[in-house]
């Protein structure tokens, strides 16, 4: 006789662990956000901070009793508009330098014009292309690997943390132009901030009325000092046709450590014309070979 067990007498099954779909969706979204966080934390935040700081300082100069505000109240709009255009121009140059390709070395060789026979004869075969141990591309002369960008950059100068980008062969002229324009804006802003400071007041009243403007004046003074030093140093390096990396690490660079002079220097005029106007000066290998040949002839 077969016995039938009542459904009420059966032992309850162990509950299965179950994760709601919402939690898996949140986990996926969190993983994607963590993957994007390094990008947001570096480039986007730096550029956003620069933009907010630029327009914030400009707004302070307009809101306080500076000559900028006095010109605006008197209906003389030429100088305020000129100042705004200079601020906008410096900001656009900053974004252009920070967002453009600084001259990354690609895996495939870039198309170039056919070299002339005399140039081909001057380039010795003893200048092999060095393979980068990080990204495994063949590095041309004066290129270097940037660990922050994880790419090799042609005519590498330095990695600028304020730009969150490398300064190299393609954006170095724009970088120097940005420094020059930014210095003009900073010096003008420094003068405007000074024109609004009023020192013949009680301490408490002065702090409430001009404390923010005085802080802006201190910031502009610091930035003007830094930018003027950067501009002077880069103009000096450009006039010598060298880079920040080559100037600091020449004793460790294979194509410079055996040299007593810079093989790429063709005089300040030609160096500046080539840098800013793009006047041809030949491949870096050709200039290096010419200097090598001149040095050998002098020894003989």
How would you describe what is shown here?
The chain is mainly α and 300 residues long. It has one domain (36-104, 118-299). Helix content is 57%, strand content 5%. The chain contains nine helices and six strands; from the N terminus they run ααααββββββααααα. It has helices at residues 21-63, 67-73, 78-99, 117-122, 172-195, 203-239, 244-249, 268-277, 284-299; strands spanning 130-131, 138-139, 144-146, 151-153, 158-160, 165-167. The protein has a two-stranded antiparallel sheet with strand order 1-2. A hairpin with a 6-residue loop joins strand 1 (130-131) and strand 2. Helix 1 (21-63) packs antiparallel against helix 3, helix 3 runs antiparallel to helix 5 and helix 5 (172-195) packs antiparallel against helix 6. The chain is elongated and about 65 Å long. The N and C termini lie far apart (119 Å).
Q: How would the blueprint of this fold be written?
A:
Elements: H1 21-63, H2 67-73, H3 78-99, H4 117-122, E1 130-131, E2 138-139, E3 144-146, E4 151-153, E5 158-160, E6 165-167, H5 172-195, H6 203-239, H7 244-249, H8 268-277, H9 284-299
Antiparallel strand pairs: 1-2, 3-4, 5-6
| Biggest pleated sheet | 2 strands, antiparallel
- Number of contiguous helices: 9
Q: Which value, in Å, is the CA radius of gyration?
A: 30 Å
What is the percent of helical residues?
Answer: 55-70%
Region (Disordered): 1-23
GO cellular component, one term: Golgi apparatus
GO molecular function: protein-cysteine S-palmitoyltransferase activity
Keywords: Acyltransferase, Lipoprotein, Membrane, Palmitate, Transferase, Transmembrane, Transmembrane helix
């Amino acid at each position: 006789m077969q016995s039938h067990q009542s459904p009420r007498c059966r032992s309850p099954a162990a509950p299965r662990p179950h994760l709601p779909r919402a939690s898996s969706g949140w986990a996926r979204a969190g993983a994607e956000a963590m993957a994007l966080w390094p990008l947001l934390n570096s480039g986007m935040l730096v550029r956003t901070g620069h933009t907010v700081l630029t327009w914030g300082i400009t707004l302070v100069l307009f809101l306080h009793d500076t000559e900028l505000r006095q010109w605006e109240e008197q209906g003389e709009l030429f100088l305020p508009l000129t100042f705004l255009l200079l601020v906008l121009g410096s900001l656009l140059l900053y974004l252009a330098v920070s967002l453009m390709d600084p001259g990354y070395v690609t895996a495939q060789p870039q198309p170039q014009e056919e070299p002339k026979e005399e140039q081909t004869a001057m380039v010795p075969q003893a200048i092999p292309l060095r393979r980068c141990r990080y990204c495994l591309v063949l590095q041309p002369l004066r290129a270097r690997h940037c660990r922050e960008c994880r790419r090799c950059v042609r005519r590498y100068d330095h990695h600028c943390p304020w730009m969150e980008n490398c300064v190299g062969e393609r954006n170095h002229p724009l970088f120097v132009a940005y420094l020059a324009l930014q210095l003009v804006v900073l010096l003008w802003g420094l003068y405007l901030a000074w024109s609004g400071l009023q020192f013949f007041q009680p301490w408490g009243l002065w702090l409430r009325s001009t404390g923010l403007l005085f802080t802006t004046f201190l910031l502009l003074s610091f930035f003007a000092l830094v930018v003027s030093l950067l501009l002077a140093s880069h103009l000096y390096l450009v006039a010598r046709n060298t880079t920040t990396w080559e100037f600091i690490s020449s004793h460790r660079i294979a194509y410079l450590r055996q040299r007593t002079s810079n093989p790429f220097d063709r005089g300040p005029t030609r160096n500046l014309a080539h840098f800013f106007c793009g006047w041809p000066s030949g491949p870096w290998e050709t200039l290096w070979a010419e200097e090598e040949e001149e040095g050998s002839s002098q020894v003989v």
